[in-house]
Amino acid sequence: MQSLLETFAQHFAWMHNPVVVARQALAGISNGMLLFLIAAGLSLIFGVLRIINFAHGALFMLGAFIAVSLSGWLPDGSASFVAMLIGATAGLAVIGVAIESGLLRRIYRAPHEFQLLLTFALVFILGDAVKLIWGNQDHSVATPPLLVGSTQALGVTFPTYRLFLIAAGIAVALGLWWVLHKTRWGIFVRAATMDRAMLGALGVNTRVLFTTVFALGAALAGLGGALAAPVVSIGPGLHVQVIIDAFVVVVIGGMGSVMGAFVASLLVGLVNAFGILAFPGLSVVLTFACMAVVLIVRPWGLFGSPE
Predict the structure, then answer these.
(1) Class of the domain covering 31-297
(2) What residue segments make up the domains of the chain, in order of their start?
(3) Among 32, 67, 133, 223, which residue has the fewest nearby CB atoms (within 10 Å)?
């Protein structure tokens, strides 16, 4: 018993160091905000289109690679970084329109297994396209000059760009909330998550609505990829771990809930950040354990609702 208590004390000795706690909290929140940009689009697409998009991680990867190309063409500077973000976001929105109108629109009434096969096939197609265009080697994007260095936050020195990621994630979350709750289009989107057939019967053009929702989801993935470009190694396999974490977030938060995706992203980011300190050998499975606990208590997720 004593040895067990000693082991427990060793695992959680870092809790007595406020600097370590603050640094890991900021790291978890910044990673969570990146994850939110991916999971929000994935959750939105499922809520409206009722399609589980396995290719969403590949869209994130495409956004990162477009950022690589734009950073090589544009001169160094903060204005070029903003242009890179806009270009990656707009580029993925266009790709999203093409995918939805050319492929997904044809299978809305097909069995779910067929939908899964199509989006899974897109993963391989987009992955091979990335290899053909950008090659198999890893790439990187320089941090914009304005965001280079460190800043004091919560009593610790933390990378400025990571703090920018936190601010960007919160800004996107607020923007999504405003769009979904304060605009006519947002009302239609929320109505579609509840009853698509009734929305169509009321005269709303659901075809255009579905296209714009998928384009927004793809644009968020592209923005996430461009924002992640300065802090991750950009290679053809970038989408694999990203889509796994994004699905965990969507399941924890509740399928179709953007607010759930935001809260779950923060939860997963913090669990990963502190799990590495507390249980280094088990850090890989902690997020899945967290998902299991949530599903036991609320099978439809934190902010989801029973079908």
Answers:
(1) mainly alpha
(2) 31-297
(3) 133
For tokens 């790291």, what's the residue? 27
For the segment 39-69, what is each residue's pLDDT rounded down to a tens digit?
988 888 887 787 888 888 899 999 999 999 8
> Rg for the chain (alpha carbons), in Å?
20
What one-character DSSP code corresponds to residue 230? T
Q: Are strands 150-153 and 156-159 parallel, antiparallel or unpaired?
A: antiparallel
Q: Where are the alpha helices (DSSP H) in the chain?
A: 2-11, 18-49, 56-73, 78-102, 112-134, 160-182, 184-194, 196-201, 206-228, 238-253, 258-278, 283-297
Q: Quick one: which of 288, 287, 291 has its CA closest to 304?
A: 291
CB-based contacts of 35, cutoff 8 Å, min separation 6: 245, 246, 249, 265, 268, 269
Q: What angle do CA 23, 29, 33 make, to 5 degrees?
A: 145
- Using alpha carbons, list the distances in angstroms from residue 127 to 54, 65, 135, 218, 239: 12, 11, 11, 16, 9
* Complete DSSP assignment for 57-72: HHHHHHHHHHHHHHHH
pLDDT tens figures, 197-245: 777 777 778 888 889 999 999 999 999 999 998 888 888 888 887 888 8
| 2 CA to centre of own chain | 43
The tokens describing 72, both together, are: 């090589």
Query: Given the structure tokens 């399941």, which residue do they identify?
Result: 251
